[in-house]
Amino acid sequence: MRGDFFRKMAGVTTSPPRVSLNEICWSWLGGFLGIGAVAGLNYGLLEGRDLLLLIASLGASAVLVYGAVKSPLAQPRNLLGGHILSALVGVTAYKLLGGQLWLAAALAVAFSIAVMHATKTLHPPGGATALIAVIGGPKIHSLGYFFVVMPVGAAAALLLIVALLVNNLPATRRYPEFWL
Fold this sequence. Notes:
By secondary structure, the protein is mainly alpha-helical. About 65% of the residues lie in helices and about 0% in strands. It has helices spanning about 1-5, 20-45, 55-65, 75-95, 100-120, 125-135, 140-145, 145-165. Helix 2 runs antiparallel to helix 3 and helix 3 (about 55-65) runs parallel beside helix 8 (about 145-165).
């Protein structure tokens, strides 16, 4: 039995081939414009207010929606649903268990994975969004459930708009693969 356990860790295939320079450039442009739009609004329009738009999990979303456009994890349903549902889970975990941050953090991530699986919205950055809702500090915590709308929902929607524009410019790319 122990041999089977370790044998499974050997892998069964090889690493995928390197992408073309053209693909790298379009992914770069999407990442720059998407995060640039979110960060520009965050620092240009919202700075000095009690609102924010830029959260760390968006960086991972940018990798998916601009760098892995065909992945099921990068599709609009997953981008929006994964972030929004995970934000709801994370805020709830903090509200119920904020006195025990280790437990709130663990449950937020675990339940966000379960909810995303159950709703077919699996988006790995959603786990980070749930975690941010728990460990994000006073500015995040003061937003309560508004965190789900702003920054999470609004920023994910902005990344999606940029993805729809940039990923469909070249003839070699198409986004999305599916909506629902």
